[in-house]
Amino acid sequence: xxxxxxxxxxxxxxxxSFPAPRVTLPxxxxxxxxxxGAFVCLExxxxxxxxxxxxxxxxxxxxxxxxxMFVSVTAFFFSLLFLCVFLSGMVNRIDxxxxxxxxxxxxxxxxxxxxxxxxxxxxxxLHNLQCNVTLNVQPLLNDNQYxxxxxxxxxxxxxxxCYGCSLAxxxxxxxx
Length: 176
Hints:
Layout: H1 14-17, H2 35-56, H3 62-88, H4 98-125, E1 130-133, E2 136-139, H5 143-174
Antiparallel strand pairs: 1-2
């Protein structure tokens, strides 16, 4: 009771106020034994290869390949962060619906990576486009850049497929 005879409100118990985190994936190194953990590792591996291959081609078409670089670098780091959060067990300390976050993340990255794959394929298809370079006509991509862009296109497709598989698995966990 307060001095005026009015009862003091009780402070809410934080354990009662927030629901427990909802996650159906295992935490710690056990996540690497699941299909979802394996796909995240493949996303990191192949996404890193896309990043390396596009940057090693000297980005001859910056308007198209700049988006591919942005998506591959951003997805690489966020997938690495996603894996580290599960490996470290932080999912048990952060109150969130991890099944929905997993689905939402993989949906957004799948859409962005699919667009990046299409742009990289478009950039590669411009191999024989002739450009006027100070009195002589040269192809837009030399043979080395073309070969690197073909490899980047293939790995962008594989990475997109990995994100699509992760999206399907996340959808199954989110909506059983």
